[in-house]
């Protein structure tokens, strides 16, 4: 059965259709989860909706309920598969400037192990903010709801 919610030139849509092989760890009518080819750490898995959605900015509330409900189930399966997991980064890159490479929504599950040496880059700019600046930023966001 052809899925009309997929596009022709998307790598992840091709994986869903079986045109490109993957190391699938979980699949149902809603999502497919498979090993990330980079394997940042053993068990690094991607979960994708079986509907072409570019990234989280394009999700409807219905999409969230349908596709993201599987995050805990997949995370727990990875944790159980690797008993020495001490944590897990569950991330998504949304847009090219956020390092999204495949323009089909996907969630990364990156198992963390004691001493794995993996560093996710963040920075602390708290010293550049005072109460007025925090309120200004918060108010800009609040005004969008």
Automatic annotation (TrEMBL):
Transmembrane residue ranges: none
Active site: 106
InterPro entries: HINT, Histidine_triad_CS, Histidine_triad_HIT, HIT-like, HIT-like_sf
Motif Histidine triad motif, chain ranges: 104-108
Domain HIT: 11-119
Protein name per Swiss-Prot or TrEMBL: HIT family protein
Keywords annotated in UniProt: Hydrolase
Record-listed E.C. numbers: 3.6.1.17
Domain of life, source organism: Bacteria
Organism: Lactobacillus helveticus CIRM-BIA 953
GO biological process, one term: nucleotide metabolic process
One Pfam assignment: HIT
A GO term for molecular function: bis(5'-nucleosyl)-tetraphosphatase (asymmetrical) activity
Family annotation (CDD domains): HINT_subgroup
């Amino acid at each position: 059965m052809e899925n009309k919610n997929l596009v022709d030139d998307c790598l992840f849509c091709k994986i869903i259709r079986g045109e490109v092989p993957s190391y699938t760890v979980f699949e149902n009518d809603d999502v497919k989860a498979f090993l990330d080819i980079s394997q940042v750490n053993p068990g690094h898995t991607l979960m994708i909706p079986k509907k072409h959605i570019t990234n989280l900015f394009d999700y409807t509330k219905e999409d969230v309920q349908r596709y993201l409900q599987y995050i805990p189930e997949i995370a727990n399966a990875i944790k159980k598969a690797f008993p020495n997991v001490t944590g897990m980064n569950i991330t998504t890159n949304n847009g090219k400037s956020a390092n999204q490479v495949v323009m089909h929504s996907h969630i990364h599950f990156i198992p963390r192990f004691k001493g794995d040496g993996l560093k996710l880059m963040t920075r602390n700019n708290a010293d550049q903010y005072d109460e007025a600046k925090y309120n200004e930023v918060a108010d800009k966001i609040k005004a969008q709801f």
